[in-house]
Fold this sequence. Notes:
With 366 residues, this protein is mainly α. The protein contains 14 helices and 4 strands.
Amino acid sequence: MQKISFARNHNDEFYKDLQSRIRAYFKENNRDRHADREMKWKTVAMLTWYLLPFILILTVFEHPLLITLSWVAMGFGMAGVGLSIMHDANHGAYSKKEKVNTYLGQLLYLLGGNDVNWKIQHNVLHHTYTNVTGVDEDISPGKILRFSPRAERKGIHRFQHIYAWFFYGLMTIMWITVKDYKQAFRYRKMDLVKTQRIKNFAGFVGKIVLSKLIYFTIFLGLPMYFSPLSWWATLLCFLMMHFICGLVLAMIFQPAHVVPSSSYPVPDESGNIEADWAVNQLFNTANFAPNSKWFSWYVGGLNYQIEHHLFPTICHTHYKKIARIVAQTAKEYNLPYISQKTFWQALREHTRMLKNLGRYDLAPGI
Length: 366
C-alpha cells in the first residue's frame, strides 16, 4: 500500500481550535465522552431487539407469518446492534476500559463478522484515508459498482443507481461467507494485520473459521432444527434477515461519503495530500436528518457522520450536542459543513452521485 500523508500546515489550526472547544464542552458540562446512561439502556434495547425474536422462533412461535416477521425484526435489530453498540466499542468510544470495548466490539461475531478485519477496514483505512481512491476500501466495492470518480468507469455503471440497492443488501451475506477470509490474507499482504496486534496469523484465520462455524450452527442450524418451517424456508428467512441488515447499513454509510459534495483527494507521486486530515473529513463527509431524534437513536448517531469522523472515540450519544460546536467552528474557518435536512434527501443525493459516476468519467464538480 502506498504511504499516504496529509499536510500538517494546511488549515491545521481548525482542528486544534475545534479539539480545544470540544474538551471545554465536556469539562464545563461535567460529562464524560464515553457511554452515558442513555447508551447503556440502548445497549440492552438493541440486543433485545435482535435476540428476543430469535428466542421466540426457537421456543414459542409456530405460525409461519409470526416466524417470518421475527426474522424481519432480527434484520433491523442486527443492524441496530452493529450501528449502535459494536461500532462505538470498536472505536474505543463505549468505555474507558479497554476490555469492555473489546467484549462489546466482539458482538460482531453475533452478526457473522470479524472484529479484527472490521477495525482494519473501518478504523485504519476508511477513517484515516476517507475517500482516497485505492486506499479507502469503503469506496472500492469491486468492478460492479463505481463509488469514486478516480475509479475506472464501465458500461454497466450507467445503471448502478438502479441495481446498487440489491448489492447493498448482500453486504453482510458477504461477511458471513467469503469476505473475512479474503480480507485476512489481503491485510497480511498489506502488512496491516499487525496494527491489531495479531502475531499468529494461522491462529487468526483459525479463529475466523471457528467463529463462522459457531455462528452458522446457532443462527441457522438451531432454527432449522427447532422451527416448524421447512429447512429451505428457514434458509430464505435467514438470507432475508441479512439482506435487510446489509441494506440498512449501506443506506446509512454510503450517503455520508458517496455524494456530489465529496472532493475525493488525490495524493501526489510521493503520496502527499494537500489538505489537513480533519479538513479532508469535512470535504468528504456529510450529515443528514439531524433533527430526527428516533432515527438518530436507531442508527447510532451516524447521521452525524462529520462529528463521528472528527471524533471517533466520543460515544455517539454526545454527537448532537457537539455538532453545534463543529458547525460553528467550520463556519468560522470558512470550511464546508454539509448536512441534508432529511434521510430521504441524503438518499437522493447519493442516488444522484451514483448516476453521475455511472455516466461520466469524472463526476460534475470533481
